[in-house]
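Protein modeling request. Please complete all fields; requests missing the sequence field cannot be processed.
Requester role: graduate student
Desired output: 3D structure, token encoding
Chains: 1
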Amino acid sequence: MVWILHRYRQPGTPQSLSMYILRAFRHRNYRLHFTGQAISLMGTWMQRIAVSWLVYRLTESAFILGFISFLSLVPSLVLSPFIGSFVDRHNKYRILLITQSGLMFQAGALALLVFLGNYSVFWIGVLSLLQGVVNTFDVTARQSLMVELVPDRADLPNAIALNSSAFNAARMVGPAVGGILLSTYGEAVCFTANFVSFIAVLGTLLAMKLSLSAPEVKQESTWQGLKEGFSYLRHSPHLSSLILLLGTSSLLVIPYTTLLPVIAREMFNGDATTFSWFESAAGFGAMTGAVYMALTKAGTNLRFRVMKASGLFAFGILMLSFASWLPLALLCIMLASMGMMVQNSSINTYIQTHAMPAYRARAISYYIMAFQGIFPLGSLLIGALANMWGIHYTLVFQGVAGALIALGFVGYIRIHILKR
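Delivered output (420 residues):
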């Protein structure tokens, strides 16, 4: 991270590097959005660990624990393209108000069930599925609204990177705070904390001053809108190639994160403390990647950056498969996590800045499907491979797969450039 900051200390860089990194905060609406989301993400991570603990306490089944997680993610795979068509034809700001209220209701319902002692795995599963459906609407609308919150496109990569920083900061702090609350007061307090955190989100949304142009509403069904969105992507290879890269990466490479407990125990004979070191290394690597993205300058070729980041991602995992020294393994995790962060953030930024406004939400919905929707399927696949092959050969497979994906994209870019 120090190297990244030093690299950008050059002529033309503002005197205050911190102000340059935070330049998206020049926009009032984005400041409000960031503040609300930062608070809400803390509550979200508290709820995640509380749900996992509650389900495992009730069932003592790793399968059911994974199934509940699958329920919260599978709507991204099944519904994202339909939701993208819906969001493109409706007011994104109003959708956000509704979805944030829905997520607040879901957290409140969990808290109430636990307080009353009237909870079961069935109802936790129902509420997890509901959260997944509402969250798919929410993420699609929020991502496609970003260009309205940050009207200066030169600041958009910075805004997306700052969002990633907030997510990873919450990922490091939220579970720690939630763990204290969970062990001291129980799951209901974690759910209540998440419920209260949505007050900040709704308050900041209501405080925004947006002048949104009315979406062009055509007399068409959602299915017709879905077909038009797919046709748009099919005729926009600069977008669809990135979504394809992300989808294959989510299926074969990104699920390495689910193997971190196995890596800690089987490769290094570690315990929960060793596992926490790997989680911290992954968080630090992602944070470093977010800082790197926050320093992105206008005119940066994001597709070339995706190529480099994908290569770094694959290299980190491949080196991890052969690491026998714990500090080296932690370094490999940091490199892989940084590559993954820069890859995904660059793809997100490119889609938001290059998709046509009328199709932006649909393009983003395919991004969400490729990232969040395919990931649980990839987790099941990689988990099965780890059971059959062992952790070493599974990581080798993921590293080689990541390298082939990166090389395939390099080949596509070279052919695309030659055609021009």
